[in-house]
Amino acid sequence: MAGWVSVSSNFSDTGRIERGDLAECDLSGLDLRAYSLRQANLSGADLTGCDLREVDLWGANLSRANLTETNFRMASLQGANLSSAELVKTNLWGANLKVAVLEGAYLLGAVLAQADMPGARCDGANFSESNLFGADLRLALFRNANFGRVDLSSAKLDSAGFTGANFRSAEILGTSIRKANCSGCDFAGANLEDSNFAGTDLSRADFRKANLKDASFRGAQFDGTTMPDGSINNDAINNWTPPDD
């Protein structure tokens, strides 16, 4: 990798690399569980396949880093910058991503089940085919993000911003999406059974061929919203009942 730097020159025996500069370093495959990487600069670094379980990466800069198949299970990434990072099949199970920045990040097939992401900024991120079961996304921003074919079942999406996001063919069962902004979102073919959209802005959203069985829409805003049967709805509803043939 261009700009490769010797790893040994950056790692101390104390297990602390706080505020250390590891930008553009090749760290692929290393076991870094013994280290604290708080506010470390890892921008553009190659961390492919690294073991970072439960590691403290509070405020670290991981922008443009290659994090493919990296293990961040239960790691603390609060306030970290992961913008434009590559996180293909990355394990972020139960990770702390509060107020983290993932704008433009690529998370194809990543595991974010039970992840803690309130206040995260993820505009334009690609979460397609990822597992976000039970994740907490409250108050986060996901404008124009891609959630195609993800599992968001039992997740918390309250008061989050999803303007223009893609949820095509996603599994969103029993999910709380109250008081969120889902204007212009594409839910075509998604399974939204038993989800709660109370008070959510659904103007110009597309629900064609979506499963809305037992979903609640009390107080939700409909304006030019496409319903599962292709009809356009501008009126408030509490539940969706398919029209008689």
Report on this model:
With 245 residues, this protein is mostly loops. The protein is built from no helices and 2 strands. It has strands spanning 225-226, 232-233. Strands 1-2 form a two-stranded antiparallel ribbon. The chain is elongated.
Summarize the structure.
By secondary structure, the protein is largely without helices or strands. The protein has strands spanning 225-226, 232-233. 0% of the residues lie in helices and 2% in strands.
Shape: elongated
Provide the β-strand percentage band: under 5%
Helix and strand pattern: EE
Rg: 20 Å
Mean pLDDT: 93
Q: Quick one: biggest sheet? A: 2 strands, antiparallel
Largest beta sheet: what is the strand line-up? 1-2
Q: Tally the beta strands.
A: 2
Put simply, the count of helices is 0
Question: Structural class, judged by helices and strands?
Answer: little secondary structure
Sequence stretches where pLDDT stays below 50 over 5 or more residues: 1-6
Give the helix proportion (percent range): under 10%
Q: Could you give the distance between the termini?
A: 62 Å
